[in-house]
Amino acid sequence: MNDPTDFLAHAGESPTPAATAAPAADAALLSALAAAQPCLWTNPLLAPQTPSAVRAGAKDISLADVHAAQARFDRFAPLLRRLFPELAGSAGAIESPVLPASALQPAIGLPPGRGTLWIKADHSLPVAGSIKARGGIHEVLEFAERLAVQHALVTEGDDYGVLAEPAARAVFSRYQVAVGSTGNLGLSIGVMASALGFRAVVHMSADAKPWKKDRLRARGVEVIEHAGDYQQAVAAGRAQAQQDPACHFVDDERSLSLLLGYSAAVLHLDAQLHEHGIAPDARRPLFVYLPCGVGGAPAGIAFGLKQRYGPHVHCFFAEPTQSPCFLVQMIGAEVNGVGGNPSVYDYGLTNRTEADGLAVPRASELAASAMRELLSGVYTVADEQLLRDLYLAKRDAGIEIEPSAAAGFSGPAMLTGTEAGQAWLARHGLTDLMATATHLVWTTGGLFVPAEEYRRFLARGEALAASSTPR
Ligand SMILES: *Cc1c(COP(=O)(O)O)cnc(C)c1O
């Protein structure tokens, strides 16, 4: 293959959704889901040929949009370098390493004959400490760039370092950036907005961790607490922002800028995989496991991955057994067509989980529409398993992550060690290729978890690991 994107089906060639009306999710899956038991759903609408553009909300997006987001990060790099001393070593890039993790394979139930384990270490992303550094910061930068151009603070080709000067800060200080968040998105938006000189407001749900609120307040961000869940915090923030024309509300459930900011991760990842000698193709499949909350982060990344690697990459989302909002969204779409936005409460689930970054009752419809034909599947993970994997990741791979970020580690065993997973691999002609497969687990947060809180998670995970049978 000369052109690496030869596999992309051109717009209009992909099978029309109506022609692929899918059977209802099977009864066994639905009962496991409602009983909060770990389960794997695979997507019957997955397109064999990756479309070159997909519909995300009201817009078609393609690889060009991924490059545009990366170009925006590149334009801002000199400014980010000035604002954040921790970015001096990366010339203003906010990036994370890809780590080999074969020592962790036995503990997570992935025998060597079934592929090799790697970690994409977004738990260590500087500035925000989680994957939200990608989407959240991108959206704040896009807003800042629009204002900078409108107010003639920069013209094309200028060094954006000037946006750290008083003239630019005076303009930014007249605007507010607001967001509703369970914690990590608030951290990313709040820190970046206040560093640029915006007024920053974060609406947080009751389940957000106190240390996240404290960290924001210490940076001059206004934190407004809401009694309900994540979705109510977003709704309250959205309503308040609509009253104020000088307020930009970052809408986690509807924002394309967020989604595209996440997608840009793929360009650097591609170079990193290449450096490690990993080049996904028809003989060497790549499996990627992405923790999912509202769906924007994993959908942005999965979109970018599918644009880059087409049918050679297989993307799976991971959700807590009590908060599988993306799974119920995809099943709903499968049964009822694209309409409908069910919640996990509709299935009798509680939305209570230690994985606070994933504690979302209802998925983003924008993310779900982008994933309709690109996502391979979604699986769920019990909290005990998250804590166990948090401990094992420390013991065998030396990394410190938060519970949400451990959700990816169940993926390889879900896929290669369960009946549902093996049946899916067989259906897609992948069974015989597993020895040369790469499994990439995306660890999505943890850098700023206070040491005391991390030690408690670790101790609980260690006790669970000692008392349970291996996978
Ligand atoms: C937000 C978050 C995710 C998932 O991102 P969504 O866009 O909400 O799906 C995963 N892991 C961590 C640690 C997060 O904070």
Short description:
The protein has 471 residues and is of the alpha/beta class.
Give a verbal description of the structure.
The chain has 17 helices and 13 strands. With 471 residues, it is of the alpha/beta class. The protein has a 7-stranded mixed sheet, with helices on both faces. A 4-stranded parallel sheet has the order 8-7-6-9, sandwiched between helices. Residues 11-23 have low confidence and may be disordered. It binds pyridoxal-5'-phosphate. Pyridoxal-5'-phosphate is lined by residues 130-132, 184, 291-298, 357-358, 402, 404-405, 444-445. Residues 130-132, 184, 291-298, 357-358, 402, 404-405, 444-445 line the site of pyridoxal-5'-phosphate.
Salient structural properties:
alpha/beta, seven-stranded mixed beta sheet, 471 residues, binds pyridoxal-5'-phosphate, 17 helices
Q: Span between N and C termini? A: 39 Å
Question: Radius of gyration from the CA trace?
Answer: 21 Å
Helix content class: 40-55%
* Chain oligomer state: single chain
Bound molecules: pyridoxal-5'-phosphate
Structural class: alpha/beta
**How many β-strands, per DSSP?**
13
Number of helices: 17
